[in-house]
Write a structure and sequence with these properties.
The protein has 166 residues and is of the alpha+beta class. It has a single domain, classed as Gcn5-related N-acetyltransferase (GNAT) (Aminopeptidase). It is 31% helix and 23% strand. A 7-stranded mixed beta sheet has the order 1-2-3-4-5-6-7. Strand 6, helix 3 and strand 7 form a beta-alpha-beta unit. The longest helix has 17 residues. 23% of the residues are buried. Bound molecules: coenzyme A (COA). The site of coenzyme A has 21 residues, from strand 6, helix 3 and helix 4.
Length: 166
């Protein structure tokens, strides 16, 4: 289990710290997003990677252009993962305030070291500090790693996005 000490986390497989992302992290966030975004593409759609990359860039540009929180996990050598959430985007159905996670990812070589879990625990703490009563986001059905992580953290399915090939 990860141990929390402020925003420092240690696990059996290494020590890392979670801190606020800075503008100099933005290029790495975009790059890690480009390297991992296909995990959010379902088998229902014949997606072209170049178009998925464009959509990801639009998402990032939107998030960076609005009020957001970027948390980055790093060890002394390198950046390991990030979570990016919007803190002023209310739930579209209820209008209630929430933290809306735009994207999160961990470097492939650093996975299964509880970094993803640590990032979400830290993001939830940041959201609570801002008085946001919910954390919400979308996840693709086939993204087993992400769904398992979110289930472990206590997230429940609120709505479903349906799709049919025509
Ligand atoms: C999803 C992701 C962020 C998880 O990061 P991570 O640091 O490897 O996750 P953790 O080590 O904190 O895993 C916590 C738990 O999640 C579950 N989990 C994580 N990866 C898993 C996998 N590949 N298969 C099954 N369960 C997995 C496990 O229950 C795990 O606990 P355990 O290791 O004690 O069994 C990472 O796989 C990733 O970056 N994926 C690509 C980008 C992505 O899909 N982002 C989410 C978009 S919604």
């Amino acid at each position: 289990m990860a141990r929390a000490a402020g925003r420092g986390f240690g696990s059996l497989t290494g020590i890392y710290r979670i801190g606020d992302g800075k503008p100099e992290d933005f290029d790495w966030v975009r790059d890690l997003g480009h390297r991992t975004m296909l995990s959010s593409v379902s088998g229902l759609r014949d997606a072209e990677p170049a178009r998925v990359a464009e959509s990801f860039d639009r998402l990032l540009d939107f998030a960076f252009g609005h009020s957001h929180v970027l948390l980055v996990a790093r060890d002394p050598m390198e950046r390991l993962g990030f979570v990016l959430f919007l803190d002023q985007l209310p739930d579209e159905v209820t209008g209630l305030p929430q933290a809306f996670v735009a994207y999160a990812a961990v470097e492939p070589h650093a996975r299964r070291r509880e970094i993803g879990r640590g990032l979400f625990v830290a993001a939830e703490a940041e959201a609570r500090k801002r008085g946001l009563p919910y954390m919400s986001f979308m996840v693709t059905e086939e993204n087993v790693a992400a769904r398992e992580l979110y289930a472990q953290l206590g997230y429940q399915t609120e709505r479903r996005q349906l799709c049919k090939r025509l």
